[in-house]
Design a protein that fits this description.
Layout: H1 2-14, H2 21-50, H3 54-109, E1 113-118, E2 123-126, H4 129-134, H5 139-142, H6 155-167, E3 169-178, E4 184-195, E5 201-210, H7 212-255, H8 260-288, E6 296-299, H9 300-309, E7 317-321, E8 325-329, H10 333-347, E9 354-361, E10 367-373, H11 398-407, E11 412-415, E12 424-429, E13 434-436
Parallel strand pairs: 7-9
Antiparallel strand pairs: 1-2, 1-5, 3-4, 4-5, 6-8, 8-13, 9-10, 10-12, 11-12
Helix pairs in contact: 2-3, 7-8, 9-10, 10-11
Amino acid sequence: MEPLKQDGAHHSASRPWVNSPVWWAFFPAAFMAVILLPYWWLAMQWSALYFTDPGVRFTFITTSFLVVLIIADSTFLVRYYQIVRNREFDEKAHELRQSEEKYRMIIENMQDMFYRTDLQGRITMISQAGVKLTGYNTLEELIGLNARDMYVDPGERDRLLSLVAEKGEVSGYPLLLRRRDGVVRHVTTSSHFYRDADGTILGLEGIIHDITDLLQAEDALRLANKKLNLLSSITRHDIRNQLTALKTYLQLNEDAIDKPAELADYFVREMKIADNIARQISFTSDYENLGVNAPSWQNVDAVVRIAMAALPLQNIRVTVDMSDIEVNADTLFEKVFYNLFDNALRYGGRDLSEIHITSRDGPAGLLIVSFEDNGVGIEAGDKVHIFSKGFGKNTGLGLFLSSEILSITGITIAETGSPGKGARFEITVPKECYRAGTPPAGPS
């Protein structure tokens, strides 16, 4: 069948007159003439009976023939006009359908979201990108919803409308929108009012651009720069200071070669310096990995027990009274508890014998995880500084790293113990960063 279609198309192309409106208008005109000519012939015969004057008969015959021609010509002209107008209409309709299809494809394939809302805020039109941005399954689910309900701060829509009314339009206006699953997205919108033919405002329309990934990339870049600066400081400044001190004691060793007591003291100091360098190098390795992987949900009880197993707790009694809670934190979350255990062992004093780890509900839906020991505690003047880089008797990096790890997902840590009665570190977890979890495997 296909070759016949191609052959027919070829013949049509070689005979353009076949599709000409003149040709198609000629047929009804000829048909009308065929119908009228017999009547004209009969009228001519009838005229021979009633018009004896040759001049009158000629006039009748001529006039009636012209009437036939006028009717046939009128039929031709009317049909020609109809065909031309219909073809023009079909061409314009085809062009309109092509234009609509083109713009429909543009809107459907846009990476950004196009939207329209009425004056009450109800969504009347939205592009396919809106499904991904809002977390719904289909466009049909979105039509009729009130856009105000998607704002993290519903009052922000009123401010947007006021600004559009004042300036006529907005470009790159920042907003916070909440997806159907509760995830907050950072977006910008370029919007204006749309109107009917009379100029009456019907609602708001515009483009919404999701910049969440861009902001996360900027945060990652800032974190990377911060990490590079800190790592450079440690490797260049702190370790060099430790090496300078080590060289000093090595020189003193030569002078004390015949003084065993002094020599032994120097050896102890040199080992302490070597330990400091090792901890600084270990810190750089851990800090380098901070924020590299996306945060994940981690069972707090399991993380605590992994940290316990990595340190010589010996006769210290550790109790873990935790609900089955998972926390969304950086993958180095275990280092937080490792550093807290290590801090207790180093500075808890000789009387340190117990460590308690508990959790409780805090205000406004927060979760409080407490790490408490019965050691000597932390002096009041040191509480503000213990999470600062370099503060402490050794490298001053452990608690600093812990604070940095927690801050990745908005978790905070503070020391709230009483000096002389033990240290107490309280980790405050936002409500969106914890959930009921699965109990860890293994013995309790």
